[in-house]
């Protein structure tokens, strides 16, 4: 007898929460946030840890170390350096001495489920949950002398990257026995933010008996504390009677005012009811849309855990921008669009088009009120463009997939895109890349407009050239849709500029083929100084390529693979070059933890060798994406990694800014997505097993299908289905047209 586990999630079932591992990706550089929040919630409540042997705690959390605060704001899965970790409480017992940092140690591993986080320490057990813009804490003290520390200077720091650390600027707190209000101003961080202020409002269900204020090394019995000294330690300690062993506290946050922070506290005053409301928010917006059947319990956890990780940032901060006189739709914490445009935003456009539309509205509003769309953004400020203005691709992807926007116009989106493409942003000094602004826009635009490529006068000349080309392709998509034929031709022509840095004669050590992207001088000659197509040297801000080797960036033109194939030569060479990218075939060039190679494993489809795509995608998933705290091969990058996994498990992959999905093969026997339009998208893998991973044939919408790609309208506009009929044998089943290259410009 074969025991088959079948799991189906419906709107009436919350069993899916048992399969979501909140500690997934918290180790090995994944930097995931395991605390409590709601989908795209502003409040992300979690612990902050110091003295961890695992290095800087980017999301606040680390497996070991000492807790020095439980704070209200975090980002998730980020590289660069930590942001936030502000508005903190810390319960403790014993004497308070501000000359020594107060920390608490855990007696066992933390426990976290959607809606509830639990910590055990020697003197107090801690539980907390969150609503949209507030947190709810429950402290159970094991001995008398209960105290709660509110240190308003608390924030995450970056000891290993001090040039990107945050600093406390100033702040103030006023307390009474039942609670407190105040503000904290912070500057710095990965985006080099100018000072920004967060307001807070805390309430206790039990009055304190005494309040101690502290600043620096001084302390006194007082209910007010403030400081204007950078990184001074300042705040209040609330002391409770010896017969008080349980304390509950609610904390609201706001960028607008203390009063709004108080109004942001959830009206639900029952701790456990708020947990259920948070779980329901996740179920209604995310998990109830999916029905999944699989025989593999581990795979089930992998799917739903990655799905959860796709809904943490950006943060919905509508009504919370202190710099705007009006408060339209607004999202913050894009960290960064460079990471998310390939897979996360296309996934959101399928499974949550309302959020997808709101993200576009937010990009438009940031352009209208701040002047430029962001690439990276935190604390209401743009900051750090790693390559191109890839918000252009996010907007094009939503536009071509008919994502609805309200309170904004597509013409405004296009105006923002044109500004990125035509106007150099004001200079903003970046010590890591002082050649041009990295705050917003295209810093290397003068070269782009003059030469049609970026020279080494600017850092990241190769990767910027590739990305500017993709961005201009995105402009051509929207221009065409808006009926602007002149702009369509202009930007389509500019999208071919990546070809200008393809050196047909360039060679790589140990490779029989020639032709790679390469830095180019202003006189049109190729620059051979410090050039190796198999190396990006530091792969960082001051190099020719950012987080990818030249050979990797050569594949990063998925809008124009026809031309790339012409440059490479024949199909056999195309296949050999793809094979050489991954250790499945004996060499390791591509970094699966960096986004420039997200598309690459699927490109065998362009030579109708889809079975090779299947082999490589499964190799990558099985080897590099595991379950558990170390399950990510690098930074989550705000959900970019998880969205890649979701598409891989479903068996389709989006080409961002187009309507094309490349077909691989599913890991799951049956999956159904309940689309917001009332229709369903369904995948069935017949005869799927660990051996039967290849496709015998497929049907799309119950019709025989001979192409290894499919378009968005066929699957999602009115619902759709793919039936995969699986086999254990490699097979070239596709006989139809190869995937389109909409950026290909014929002479």
Automatic annotation (TrEMBL):
<dbReference type="GO" id="GO:0005634">
    <property type="term" value="C:nucleus"/>
</dbReference>
<dbReference type="GO" id="GO:0000224">
    <property type="term" value="F:peptide-N4-(N-acetyl-beta-glucosaminyl)asparagine amidase activity"/>
</dbReference>
<dbReference type="InterPro" id="IPR014718">
    <property type="entry name" value="GH-type_carb-bd"/>
</dbReference>
<dbReference type="InterPro" id="IPR008928">
    <property type="entry name" value="6-hairpin_glycosidase_sf"/>
</dbReference>
<dbReference type="Pfam" id="PF17678">
    <property type="entry name" value="Glyco_hydro_92N"/>
</dbReference>
<protein>
    <recommendedName>
        <fullName>Glycoside hydrolase family 92 protein</fullName>
    </recommendedName>
</protein>
<feature type="domain" description="Glycosyl hydrolase family 92">
    <location>
        <begin position="260"/>
        <end position="727"/>
    </location>
</feature>
<dbReference type="GO" id="GO:0005975">
    <property type="term" value="P:carbohydrate metabolic process"/>
</dbReference>
<dbReference type="InterPro" id="IPR012939">
    <property type="entry name" value="Glyco_hydro_92"/>
</dbReference>
<dbReference type="InterPro" id="IPR041371">
    <property type="entry name" value="GH92_N"/>
</dbReference>
<dbReference type="GO" id="GO:0005829">
    <property type="term" value="C:cytosol"/>
</dbReference>
<dbReference type="InterPro" id="IPR005887">
    <property type="entry name" value="GH92_a_mannosidase_put"/>
</dbReference>
<feature type="domain" description="Glycosyl hydrolase family 92 N-terminal">
    <location>
        <begin position="19"/>
        <end position="254"/>
    </location>
</feature>
<dbReference type="Pfam" id="PF07971">
    <property type="entry name" value="Glyco_hydro_92"/>
</dbReference>
<dbReference type="GO" id="GO:0030246">
    <property type="term" value="F:carbohydrate binding"/>
</dbReference>
<dbReference type="InterPro" id="IPR050883">
    <property type="entry name" value="PNGase"/>
</dbReference>
<dbReference type="GO" id="GO:0006516">
    <property type="term" value="P:glycoprotein catabolic process"/>
</dbReference>
